[in-house]
Amino acid sequence: MSHDHGSASATHPEARNGAEPPGEAPKRAKERRAIVVGASSGMGAALVRQLSSEGVDVVAVARRRAVLDELAAECRGRAGRVIPCAHDVLDYAAVPALLEQLVRDLGGLDLFVYASGKMTEVGASEFDTAKDLDMLAVNVGGCIAWTNEVAKLFRTQRSGTIVGISSIAGERGRKGNPAYGTSKAAMNHYLEALRNRLADYDVHVCTIKPGFVETPMLDAARARGTAIKGAITAEAAARSILRAARRRSNEAFVPLKWALVAAVLRNIPSFLFKGMNI
Predict the structure, then answer these.
(1) Domains in the chain, number
(2) DSSP code, position 248
(3) Do the beta carbons of residue 64 and residue 88 sit within 8 Å?
(4) Is 278 within the bounds of a domain?
(5) Phi-psi region of 158 (alpha: psi -120 to 50; beta: other; left: phi over 0)
(6) Residue 267: pLDDT above 50?
(7) Given its phi and psi angles, is residue 48 left (phi above 0), alpha (psi -120 to 50 degrees) or beta?
């Protein structure tokens, strides 16, 4: 199951927003301009909603333009604009020019989030190279293609926050889906290295490691018969993600209880772990 990462092209009709929706108005964010890649569903879409409600102008990037238009229409009337942008994260070559255009449209950039991700079902006795490389291409290749370009911009302006949404699955080599876990472990390593590389330029890189979050990816797992309990909503995850980014956390488990799970997983000896069906 993938977060949206599909067809190329990028036109940007703006969804202007005015008054806040009924109820208590969210606090104004310190960020003024953001880009969320992987914005058509799940945590990416929830982040767009949250940011726009806080007065942030957001470019929502994903494959399915119609879904992005619906998201922009939903957010109309909020304090920040939502600008839809259709793009396939596998089109690495398009990223430099596209980012330049989007930053120009926004009038600058303060926050970048890579939320695009793909997890394909893999059978217990299946070793499918095409499936595995496709997950790596979206989860790692797309992340690097976008984040390298953002890193260059933020390094030059000596400010900005980069958020990469990884997974608890990157903590150990679980037998269930080797390539997916590998892609998230690679994200973790890349984002940590980038954080260290940019530290002297006042650019922060935050790695988010979600556990169970109500997203289309989780729905697909349930449809395959996987029993999953205790998932939080994408909206709750989005609030936690932004809180961690604004606190300049280096990494954050969402929700926090997964930090304990990760600590346990990391300390199980390999001779025991290889026999565990997790």
Answers:
(1) 1
(2) T
(3) no
(4) no
(5) left
(6) yes
(7) alpha
Q: Which domain holds residue 112?
A: 33-273
Q: How far apart are CA 10 and CA 35, in angstroms?
A: 14
3-class secondary-structure state, position 179:
helix
Whether pLDDT at 152 is above 50:
yes
CA dist 151 and 162 (Å) reads: 8
234-246 helix and 42-53 helix, angle to the nearest 10 degrees: 60
| CATH (domain of 163) | 3.40.50.720
Structural domain contains residue 21: no
pLDDT at position 157 over 80: yes
Whether residue 6 has pLDDT greater than 50: no
Burial (0-12, 13-18, 19+ Cβ within 10 Å), 213: buried
36 within 8 A of 150, measured Cβ to Cβ: no
191-212 core/surface letters (b: 16 or more CB in 10 A; e: else) = beebbeebeeeebbbbbbbbbb
Q: What's the pLDDT band for 210 if we cut at 50, 70, 90?
A: very high
Residue 11 maps to a domain: no
Question: Is 26 a domain residue?
Answer: no
pLDDT the model gives residue 22: 41
The span from the CA of 172 to the CA of 167, in Å, is 11
pTM confidence score: 0.87
